[in-house]
Specification:
The structure is a single chain. The protein is of the alpha/beta class. The protein has three domains: about 20-185, Nucleic acid-binding proteins (OB fold (Dihydrolipoamide Acetyltransferase, E2P), Beta Barrel), CATH 2.40.50.140; about 260-455, 3-Layer(aba) Sandwich (Rossmann fold), CATH 3.40.50.300; about 465-520 and about 530-645, Rossmann fold (3-Layer(aba) Sandwich), CATH 3.40.50. The protein contains 27 helices and 21 strands. It has a seven-stranded parallel β-sheet with strand order 11-12-10-13-14-9-15, with helices on both faces. The chain has a six-stranded parallel β-sheet with strand order 16-21-20-17-19-18, with helices on both faces. The protein has a five-stranded mixed beta barrel with strand order 2-3-4-6-5. α20 links the parallel β20 and β21. The longest helix has about 30 residues, at about 215-245. The chain starts with 19 loop residues before the first helix and ends with a helix.
C-alpha cells in the first residue's frame, strides 16, 4: 500500500512495563495501541458471582467466586498432601487444587465463605472441573488492600489472560496507558461517525476499559465493532477495485471441443446446483478481467467436477489450467480421479487418445528426475492442458505456455505468496477459482472473502444416502467402543472398507516433551494422557478387535511413494481398514468405504470432523461415522461432538464451529502470521454491521481509491491491516 498520505500513528510506542515481555510472547501485545485494543472479555459486578457451569476446557480463565469448602488430603501413604478448595456461584462448582509446600498460603487466605478472583487453566479430574495451582487475589478481605482497591469499581473488567499474566495485572497495565487514548487516530470519516451517532475513538476506548454502566460498554462495543468491520471492508473494496482494472484473456467455451466431448461421456446428469455454478464461472471466464471466485460447498457436492469443466473450457480456448493442492496425497488423488473421469480425453499424443484430447500431468516434489523433466516440457510447450500439483508448481523452473486459470483447492492451506507465485506465471493475470470444502456462513464470506464473488454448492448428487453419526463415550460406557469395532468388522464382512482416524502419528517422533516437576505433580491428579496415535492404535486393532483384517496405516511422515501405494491399494479394495491421521481429511474419494471411527474426536474441530466424516458414504451404500471420546458427558467437548452427530448440514456446523472459536481463527491468522484485527466484531452475530460497513466502504473507495482525502483511515489500514495482513486478504 502506498503510505504517503497516512498520518503518523502516535500509539506505536513500545510497552515499557515489567510485564511487556510476557505480553509480547503470550498475547502478542507490543505497543501502547495494542494494549488499548486488548479489550475485556467480560465484566463482573461487585457482589455478583461468576457463572461456573460453562467454563471452557483447556483455556486460561479468570473467575470471581466464593469458597464453599476447603480440605487438606494426604496421598502416597502420607508422604504427599494436597489442598482442595471448592468454589461455588449457586449454578456450578469448580475445584482448586494445590500440592506440596504450596498449600499453606491459600489454606490460610481462602477460608470457607471468603471471595476471590482466581486464574488458571481449566482441566477435568474425576469428572470435576478444576484449576491446578491457580493464581488468585482475595476480594473483600484485608489480605491484599491494593488488589481490593483496584477492583473497587462497580464493574470489574476480566481480560483475556495467560499464565504469568493474570487479568488483574493487565488491568493495572491498562490503567497506565489509558490516558494516552486521547492520542488515538480515529479511522471513521467524520461524516460517517456523526451520521451514525458514534462516540469518538478515545471516548470508546475509555468506556470499554473503565465503564461506569452497562450502557457505556454497549456504546463502546458498537463503535469498536464498526471500526473493525469498516477497516476490513475498505481493504477488501480497494482490492476489488484494483482487480477490476487488471486485464485478462477471455476464455469462452468452444462448440464441439473438449468440454462437449467430456459432457457427452458423463454417465450422470449434473445437479441443478452444479449447472447454476457452472454458468456463473463460465460468465466470469468470458470477460477480459480476471475471475476471482470462491466455490464453496458441502462435502461430496461435486466441486471437483465443476472445477474440471471450467479447466476444460480454458483448454478449449487455447489456455492451460493449473490445480494447486495442499498435499501430495490430495494432488495424486485429484490426478487419478480426473484422468479416470476424462478417459481417452486425457491421452493426447498417446495411442487410443481421442480427437479432442489433452495431456493431464502431475507435478509434485517427490517425482523422479525423468518424470519431472517430462512434465515440465509438456507444460512449457503447451502439450499438457491441465497440470495438478503441490507447492512444486510454484518453483521458478516451472514455465507455462499460456496459463489461463488457476484452481486452488482448500485455499486456507496456502499462503498468499504461494498463490501469487503461481498466478504470476501467466502472460496476463489468469482467472482464479478458489475452492473450499468447509461451508462458510454469508457473514464470514463477506468478511474474509469479500474480494471474491461466491458460488455455493449445497446439493448432493442423486443417490447419496445420509451418513449416520454417533458419539461413543469410551470412558462412561466402554462396551460401546467394543460394539464400534464390531460394526467395523460387520461392514468389512459386507465387502466394504473403513477408516480409523487418530490425532497423532506416534512412534516416538512426536511424543510430548518431558514433563516438569510441576507437571508430574499435576499428573498424580489425573492430567490428560497424550492423544491417541495411528501406529499404536493400528497395532492394538491388529492384535485385538480387528484381528485377521487387512490393516494399513497412512500418515504425513511416510514417503510419498509409500503413501500413494497405500491409497491405491485401499482404493482398489485390497485394504480393509485404513488407520490414518487427518491426511485423508479432504479430497480422498473411495466410494466403497462406508465406516469411520474417529478416536479422541474431541481433539478435532467441528468443521474438521465434518470433513473427515465426508470420506464415507460416497457410494451407493449408507455411511457410518463413530465419534469416540473419553470426555465427560457434561463437558463442552461432548456437546460439540453431539452437535456434529446431530446434523449433516455443513453450514449449520460452521456456525457452531465459529461460535466456539476465537474470531481471530476466522481470519486465518495461522496463515497470515499476524494477530487478528477482529477483537470486538463477531462475524456470526454482527451481519448488519458487516453489511452496512461494506456498503460505506464501497462508496468511499469508488470515490477515492487511494484514500487521499482520508489520512486517518490510511493510518488505520497501516495499523490494523499491515502489509502482511493486507497481502493475506488478497486471495487473488
Amino acid at each position: 500500500m502506498d503510505r504517503v498520505s497516512a498520518l503518523d500513528e502516535p500509539l506505536k510506542t513500545p510497552l515499557g512495563a515489567a510485564t511487556a515481555k510476557v505480553m509480547a510472547e503470550h498475547l502478542d501485545l507490543h505497543t501502547v495501541g495494542d494494549l488499548l485494543h486488548h479489550y475485556p472479555r467480560r465484566y463482573e459486578e461487585r457482589g455478583q458471582l461468576t457463572t461456573l457451569a460453562d467454563l471452557p476446557l483447556d483455556e486460561d480463565v479468570t473467575v470471581v467466586a466464593q469458597v464453599a469448602d476447603s480440605r487438606v488430603l494426604k496421598f502416597n501413604n502420607g508422604r504427599g498432601q494436597r489442598l482442595e478448595i471448592t468454589l461455588t456461584d449457586g449454578s456450578g462448582r469448580l475445584q482448586l487444587v494445590f500440592f506440596g509446600k504450596g498449600i499453606h498460603k491459600p489454606h490460610k487466605e481462602l477460608p470457607p465463605g471468603s471471595r476471590g478472583m482466581f486464574a488458571g487453566k481449566v482441566s477435568v479430574f474425576n469428572r470435576k472441573l478444576q484449576l491446578a495451582h491457580p493464581t488468585y487475589v482475595p476480594l473483600g478481605t484485608d489480605s491484599d488492600e491494593d488488589a481490593v482497591d483496584a477492583f473497587a469499581g462497580r464493574l470489574i473488567p476480566i481480560y483475556p489472560a495467560c499464565k504469568g499474566l493474570e487479568s488483574w495485572k493487565i488491568t493495572k497495565a491498562v490503567d497506565t496507558v489509558l490516558p494516552r487514548a486521547v492520542e488515538a487516530v480515529d479511522p471513521l470519516p467524520p461524516a460517517l461517525r456523526e451520521g451514525r451517532g458514534f462516540a469518538s475513538l478515545p471516548e470508546a476506548l475509555h468506556k470499554i476499559h473503565r465503564p461506569e454502566t452497562r450502557a457505556d460498554i454497549e456504546d463502546a462495543r458498537q463503535r469498536l465493532k464498526w471500526d473493525e468491520a469498516f477497516v476490513l471492508q475498505v481493504a477488501l473494496a480497494r482490492r476489488r477495485f484494483a482487480n477490476a482494472g487488471l486485464p485478462a484473456v477471455a476464455r469462452k467455451p468452444r462448440p464441439d471441443g473438449l468440454l462437449d466431448a467430456f459432457d457427452a461421456k458423463l454417465p450422470f446428469t449434473l445437479t441443478d446446483g452444479q449447472q447454476k455454478v457452472t454458468r456463473e464461472i463460465f460468465d466470469d471466464l468470458a470477460t477480459e478481467h480476471p475471475m476471482h471466485r470462491l466455490l464453496q460447498g458441502e462435502v461430496g457436492s461435486g466441486k471437483t467436477m465443476v472445477a474440471l469443466r471450467a479447466m476444460l473450457t480454458v483448454v478449449d480456448a487455447g489456455g492451460q489450467a493449473a490445480m494447486l493442492a495442499p498435499t501430495e496425497v490430495l494432488a495424486q488423488q485429484h490426478h487419478r480421479s480426473i484422468t479416470e473421469m476424462m478417459g481417452e480425453l486425457a491421452e493426447s499424443g498417446m495411442l487410443g487418445g481421442a480427437e479432442h484430447s489433452t495431456k493431464v500431468v502431475l507435478l509434485t516434489g517427490s517425482m523422479g528426475a525423468a518424470g519431472r523433466r517430462r512434465a515440465l516440457l509438456d507444460l512449457v510447450t503447451g502439450e499438457a492442458g491441465i497440470v495438478i500439483g503441490t507447492h512444486a508448481l510454484i518453483e521458478d523452473k516451472v514455465q507455462f505456455h499460456d496459463l489461463g486459470v488457476v484452481v486452488v483447492d482448500e485455499q486456507h492451506r496456502f499462503g498468499v505468496e504461494q498463490r501469487d507465485a503461481l498466478r504470476s506465471k501467466g502472460k496476463q493475470p489468469p482467472h482464479l477459482l478458489v475452492m473450499t470444502a468447509t461451508p462458510i456462513p454469508r457473514t464470514v464470506a463477506m468478511t474474509v472473502f469479500g474480494d471474491l464473488e461466491t458460488s455455493v454448492l449445497d446439493q448432493l448428487p442423486a443417490g447419496r444416502l445420509p451418513i449416520a453419526s454417533h458419539v461413543v463415550p469410551a470412558q462412561d460406557k466402554p462396551h460401546f467402543l467394543a460394539r464400534a469395532w464390531e460394526r467395523v468388522r460387520e461392514e468389512v464382512e459386507k465387502g466394504h472398507q473403513a477408516y480409523v482416524v487418530c490425532p497423532r502419528i506416534g512412534d516416538g517422533d512426536d511424543e510430548p516433551k518431558k514433563k516438569s516437576a510441576e507437571d508430574t505433580a499435576t499428573s498424580e491428579e489425573g492430567a490428560k494422557r497424550p492423544p491417541l496415535a495411528v501406529i499404536e492404535i493400528a497395532e492394538q486393532l491388529a492384535k485385538g478387535p480387528l484381528t485377521g483384517l487387512r490393516i494399513e496405516v497412512l500418515h504425513g511422515r511416510m514417503q510419498p511413494d509409500d503413501k500413494d501405494d497405500v491409497m491405491r491399494r485401499f482404493a482398489a479394495g485390497d485394504v480393509d481398514v485404513l488407520v490414518a491421521t487427518t491426511v485423508i481429511e479432504v479430497g480422498v474419494n473411495v466410494p466403497n468405504a462406508t465406516a469411520m471411527v474417529i478416536m479422541d474426536a474431541d481433539r478435532f474441530g467441528v468443521s474438521q470432523l465434518h470433513q473427515l466424516r465426508g470420506r464415507v458414504g460416497r457410494g451407493s451404500a449408507a455411511g457410518l461415522c463413530l465419534l469416540v471420546s473419553e470426555m465427560p458427558e457434561a463437558s463442552p467437548a461432548r456437546a460439540r461432538l453431539s452437535a456434529v452427530a446431530a446434523t449433516l448440514d455443513g453450514f449449520e456446523l460452521s456456525r457452531i464451529d465459529l461460535e466456539q472459536r476465537r474470531e481471530g481463527d476466522v481470519l486465518g491468522q495461522a496463515q497470515s502470521g499476524v494477530r487478528s484485527s477482529l477483537r470486538m466484531l463477531a462475524v456470526i452475530d454482527d451481519e448488519e454491521v458487516i453489511a452496512a460497513a461494506r456498503e460505506e466502504a464501497v462508496a468511499i473507495v469508488s470515490e477515492d481509491p487511494e484514500l487521499e482525502r482520508l489520512p486517518e483511515l490510511r493510518t488505520a489500514l497501516d495499523a490494523l491491516l499491515d502489509t502482511e495482513r493486507e497481502q493475506y486478504l488478497d486471495k487473488g
